[in-house]
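Predict the 3D structure for this chain.
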Amino acid sequence: MNGTIFKVLIGLAVAGLLAGSWGMGERLIYGLNPVAFGSYVPWGLWVSFYLFFLGLSAGAFLVTTMTYVFGMKRFEVIARLSAFTVLICLLCEVLFITLDLGRMERIYRFLLTPSFSSLMTWMFVFFNAMLVIYAIKTFLLARGDLVRWVGDPARRGRSIYRLLALGLTSYDASAWAREKRMVRLLSILSLPVGLLFYGTNGAFFAILMNRPIWNSALTPLLFIMAAILSGGALVTFLTFLFMHDEELIHGLGRAILFVLVTFLFLQAMQFFVGYQTGLAMTVTTLNLIAFGPYWYSFWIVHLLIGSLIPLILLTTRPHDSRAVAWACFLIVATFLSVRFNFVIPDLAIYKLDGLEETFFHPRLRTNYVPNLNEWLVSLWIVSLGLLAFLLGTRWLPVLSPEKEGSEHAI
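Done. Predicted structure below.
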């Protein structure tokens, strides 16, 4: 990555942490009292961000799986960075969903009194399994370079790298072959664990009977395609920033174009089938997405900036790495609107006629708008994730050695 861009991003991350610390302090001191969601809209901006990072981690997960399970050596150059990306995304996911819990200190009950008939329990189990697997996998992939850095007199912080390498002082081809076999075993294990983790998140929404948009067999498929699209776009953009592999970027760009078209087709089918049913709740929910208070997030942010412009770039300039990178950046940067338009509209309609006239309280309204506290907390978590990622790429061997010196600038 270009040094100037790196410094600017570090500055933005630090500024975001400082600005967001006020909101984070309010959340830790006053619980959920400062937030805008309530009883009728119990999930808000933080759940949307959780799903956003869930998708980003899925794309990086897919790259490591293709590399070490299916033997696609073409992706090996970005596999280590992808594994590290999964870790950062998992960190952001758990922070968002934990802060969304009303009594987050009671999370220990998942361990002491688990209910294995609950999808939330299985989400907890699979999340922690993914976290452990990818922490070990990232360590094994980077260990050889950690040992090499320990023996480099010009490298600062060698004592820290010696600690991270668990005291190992030599690393030869046989050691790498042994640990590569372990990486493959972990990757094979992560395949069913990851699929169950991402599938469970989709099923968690799909089984809710009184949510007409969520309660559909199409929901898990949309979850998978959304994850592949946003996560794949992130991996492509990172490949442009940190690697000098034009052929790989062009190939990933073609794949992103196919996934984007497929995702938009599934979205169109969701609207077509929903309107054809004529059910009041379904039609009202779809109208909220397309013509409600957040119409601009659907038409302008998602469809125009996050879909149409990338489609044009990927179609007209498929062999221009910078154009492919910009297209992928726009997809990632605007994909929060997709998650927000999935979570909020289905909660924003009253399920019983006259309910809005029965009780009057700010927490018993469906006209949810994220407030300043929610945005500040979100800014803090995103800034923390960005800072951890940037420092990791600079001070940890998460890039392939032969690609460390390459630079790109957008």
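The two ends are 10 Å apart (CA to CA).
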